[in-house]
């Protein structure tokens, strides 16, 4: 597929005209000149001052309060006496999905993560309907989102869920933020994109037309419902698409599973996916952000992925990025292993071999003759005193191994004990016999070199898999006491 470059219909980018756009990646601008005698460049930003009853109103971003809270409330009130016609309802839902895709497929996957490339017509469409969602310009949105990925759950994350679910949902917009605290990111590619630059420069015009005027025109010219188009397809549709997008910052970091990594907050959940046009598989997304998909299983809901795929078939999108299945499965397996390690750490696997005292054979025999119920299996001494009465094979059988080398007895000489029996026996360890074949087995079990039998989890604890217990010896040597 040949590369698509912006052609006619979009002004060429003049670098000199980009100077009006503040860049978090550029060098700090010269200090702004003093505008009045009360100006103090060293005065802390309002967000760095305590929130009190007297100054709380200074911490509020009142413009965003009006846009995000005030206007939707006004729309809800007006809707109580504005009839909803079925044509307007269908149009509002259709435009909801269109503007939602402008955010998910456009702002998010195309521009913030460059997970695919788009032709000029598709770029213009996504920039237009994305503006109709009224969530800021592409440049502003993508810049903050890249910071969110780079600094997830930290103070440099613009909408960190660690500051509270409501804060990550919309509190970060209605409360003033210190722009210096937002993590730095590279958006030079966005500054070179003519569509992004044009939309940023004319953002207010795009918002007014695509957010309110256009849906009103469709309803008015289509079936004469001007007021319904303005209220339902305009104001209320904006409110619902905004809340859906906000859920990616809040709900997707709070509800669900973490199949790929649990070091940070992103999670996967079908409910979030249904609300956000497929952005709910957020744990996968944070692990593989440049993948054009959020959902990788056929049954998972991701209409944004399906739309991008369909655009590719139409020649509108190309270079769709996917992480290799091998890498995805490695990440999934590593997280599964981590969860297993966490469960394993809660279980009693017996005293680690390297922490056991070393006993002489004569000392072992002497303790048994003095009434202690000890048996030696594969060079490891176990105290079975309290288990003799509960032994499924009977008291006489287990007593016959006391004071002897019961390796062969335990491994098929009398009875080839089960995996559960080996696990239970490991919890009764008290020491290791010095000398003989048995200690060689112990040495191999603790050897970290080639041919080591020992595997440790991320906590440094030995992983004991079925069939790998120290006491399980294949083709055991004949030993005293074998019946």
Automatic annotation (TrEMBL):
Q: Name its species.
A: Hortaea werneckii EXF-2000
Annotated membrane topology is: Multi-pass membrane protein
For this UniProt record, the keywords arranged alphabetically read as follows: Electron transport, Fatty acid biosynthesis, Fatty acid metabolism, Heme, Iron, Lipid biosynthesis, Lipid metabolism, Membrane, Metal-binding, Oxidoreductase, Transmembrane, Transmembrane helix, Transport
Entry EC number(s): 1.14.19.1
* Cytochrome b5 heme-binding domain ranges (all copies): 356-434
Explain how, and how many, cofactor molecules are bound.
Answer: Expected to bind 2 Fe(2+) ions per subunit.
Q: Which SUPFAM superfamilies does this chain map to?
A: Cytochrome b5-like heme/steroid binding domain
Q: Where is the composition biased (Basic and acidic residues)?
A: 34-45
Give GO cellular component annotations, separated by semicolons.
endoplasmic reticulum membrane
Entry's Gene Ontology BP terms? unsaturated fatty acid biosynthetic process
Q: Name one GO molecular function term.
A: stearoyl-CoA 9-desaturase activity
Where in or outside the cell it occurs: the entry states: Membrane
Record's family?
A: Belongs to the fatty acid desaturase type 1 family.
Enumerate the residue ranges of region (Disordered): 1-45
Q: What is this protein called?
A: Acyl-CoA desaturase
**UniProt function note:** Stearoyl-CoA desaturase that utilizes O(2) and electrons from reduced cytochrome b5 to introduce the first double bond into saturated fatty acyl-CoA substrates.
**Reactions the enzyme catalyzes:** octadecanoyl-CoA + 2 Fe(II)-[cytochrome b5] + O2 + 2 H(+) = (9Z)-octadecenoyl-CoA + 2 Fe(III)-[cytochrome b5] + 2 H2O
| Principal localisation | membrane
Q: Which residue positions does the secretion signal occupy?
A: none
Supply the enzyme class, top level.
Answer: oxidoreductase
Regions crossing the membrane: 62-82, 89-108, 206-224
Cofactor dependence: Fe(2+)
